[in-house]
Amino acid sequence: MVVVVVALTVAGVALTFRAAPSSNPRGPDGTCLLTGEARIVESVGDLVVQPTARDEWRDVTITLRGQGTAAANAGEPMGPFALKREVVQGRTALKLELFQKPDGERWVRIVMRPTDVRIVATLRGEQCRLTKSF
C-alpha cells in the first residue's frame, strides 16, 4: 500500500512539473513555424512582413534570394542577402537595398528579382521560421 501511494505521488509531481507544450504552430517535421505574411511591393521596392495577430518576432534574421534580371546576369541565382532586426511587430516595410551579403554586397533592385524569403525569429522563447516564394 505504501509503495502504491509513493508511486502515485511521484507520478503526480512529475506531471505537475513537466514542461508545458509550446503554443507555437508546428510544421510536418515538428519544427516551429512563424505565422504571418511576407510579400514584395515592387512599385516601391519593399519587402513587407507582418506577424499574425499581436505576435512579436525577436532576434529576426530575414534572408532574401533572387535571380538576376540584367543582360549580364539574367536568370542567375542571387543571394543570399540578409537583414537583421531586433523586433518585428505589426506591418513592417523593409527596403530591398538594405539586404546585404557578409562581404557587404547589397541587393540591387534594378538588376535583381526576389524569388524567396526566409525569416528566422524567436517567438515565445523558441526559434521559428517562415519561408515564402514569390
What strand line-up does the widest sheet have?
4-3-6-7
Count of structural domains: 1
Outline the low-pLDDT stretches.
none
Please outline the major beta sheet. 4 strands, antiparallel
| Helical run tally | 1
Rounded mean pLDDT is 88
Radius of gyration: 22 Å
The topology string of helices and strands comes to: HEEEEEEE
Q: Structural class of the helix and strand makeup?
A: mainly beta
What best-fitting shape do the alpha-carbon axes yield? elongated
Question: What is the structure about, briefly put?
Answer:
By secondary structure, the chain is mainly beta. The chain is built from 1 helix and 7 strands; from the N terminus they run αβββββββ. It has one domain: Immunoglobulin-like (Sandwich), CATH 2.60.40.
